[in-house]
Design goal:
296 residues; mainly alpha; MetI-like fold
Length: 296
C-alpha cells in the first residue's frame, strides 16, 4: 500500500510541469487576452478600459461578419461531408477487402499532412491556368470551366473540397474502429433474415456508432473553429473576403493592422465558441458514464 502511495506521489510530481504549463501558460494567456479585449490596445497593450466597445466594433465590421458566414458554410459542409465520406470508406473497408491495410493507409495519408501542404496541393489543382481546367482543355474540351478558386461565389467551396480530402480519413479510422467492435452475431442474424448489406449498415451498425461519430464531430468542429493555414495557403482569404475566416481576421488585425484590442475581442469570441462546442459534449459523456455506473 505504501509503495502504491509512493508511486502515486511520484506520478503527481512528474505532472507538475504539465499543470504549470496548463495553468500559467494556457489559462493565463487566455485571461490576459480577454482582459485586453476590454481595452483600446493597438500596437502595445493598454490599461485604458473601454468596456464592450471592441465587441461592438467587431460585430459592425463587414469582414468579421463575412468570416462568420464563411466559417458556418465551411463548418457545416466540412463536418457533414467528412462524416458521410468517412462512414462510406469505413463501411467499404469493413467488408474485409483485399489490400485493406494499403487502402487504409492511402485514405488516412492526407490527414498526416499539414493544412499548408494540403492548401498548396489544391491551389495548384484548382488553378485555372495550371490545374484541372487546363488539363481538361488540353484534351480538347476547350469550353470546360472549373475556376471556383477565383470566383467569389464558389471560392469557399474549394476550401470545403480540400478539407474533405484531408479530414475524411480521420473519420474513417474512428468509424472503422467502432465497426470492428460490433459483434459478428449481429451480422449472422442479419444474413439469416436476408437483410441487404446497406440496410444493415444504416439501420443496425450506424445507430451503434453514436459515440465514435460524436468524437469525430467534436474533433472536426474544433478544427473548423481554428481554420487558418488552409485558407492562407489555398486562397489567402480571397477573392476579396470570399474565404475570410475568423482566425485569419484575428491574425491580420494582430500583426498587419496592429489592432490588439480588436484581435483580442475576436479571439475571445472564438474561445467562447470552442467552449460551446466542448462543454455540451463533455457533459453528455459525463452523464452517460454516470448512468452506466448506476446501472451496474
Amino acid at each position: 500500500m505504501a509503495q502504491m502511495r509512493k508511486r502515486s506521489r511520484t506520478a503527481s510530481y512528474a505532472l507538475l510541469p504539465t499543470w504549470f504549463a496548463a495553468i500559467f501558460v494556457y489559462i493565463g494567456t487566455m485571461v490576459w487576452s480577454i482582459r485586453l479585449s476590454f481595452t483600446d490596445s493597438t500596437v502595445f497593450p493598454s490599461s485604458n478600459y473601454v468596456g464592450l466597445a471592441q465587441y461592438a466594433r467587431l460585430f459592425r465590421n463587414s469582414r468579421w461578419l463575412a468570416s462568420l458566414e464563411n466559417v458556418v458554410i465551411f463548418g457545416v459542409l466540412y463536418v457533414i461531408g467528412c462524416l458521410v465520406l468517412g462512414f462510406l470508406l469505413a463501411a467499404s473497408l469493413d467488408r474485409k477487402v483485399r489490400f485493406e491495410s494499403m487502402f487504409r493507409t492511402i485514405f488516412l495519408y492526407p490527414y498526416a499532412m499539414s493544412f499548408v501542404v494540403t492548401g498548396l496541393i489544391w491551389q495548384w489543382m484548382l488553378n485555372p491556368t495550371l490545374g484541372i481546367q487546363a488539363f481538361v482543355r488540353s484534351l480538347g474540351w476547350t469550353s470546360f470551366v472549373f475556376d471556383w478558386i477565383v470566383s467569389r461565389d464558389m471560392a469557399i467551396y474549394t476550401i470545403v473540397l480540400a478539407g474533405l480530402w484531408q479530414g475524411a480519413g480521420l473519420v474513417m479510422v474512428i468509424t472503422l474502429a467502432g465497426m470492428r467492435g460490433i459483434s459478428e452475431e449481429q451480422w449472422k442474424a442479419a444474413q439469416i433474415d436476408g437483410i441487404p448489406v446497406w440496410r444493415v449498415y444504416v439501420s443496425i451498425i450506424l445507430p451503434q456508432l453514436g459515440p465514435a461519430l460524436a468524437a469525430a464531430s467534436m474533433l472536426l468542429g474544433m478544427g473548423v473553429i481554428k481554420t487558418y493555414d488552409l485558407v492562407v495557403a489555398l486562397t489567402g482569404g480571397g477573392p476579396g473576403s470570399a474565404t475570410e475566416v475568423p482566425a485569419k481576421f484575428i491574425m491580420d488585425n494582430l500583426f498587419e493592422r496592429q489592432n490588439l484590442g480588436l484581435a483580442s475581442a475576436g479571439a475571445t469570441v472564438l474561445v467562447l465558441s470552442v467552449l460551446m462546442a466542448v462543454v455540451p459534449f463533455r457533459y453528455a459523456v459525463y452523464i452517460r458514464s454516470r448512468r452506466k455506473g448506476v446501472q451496474r
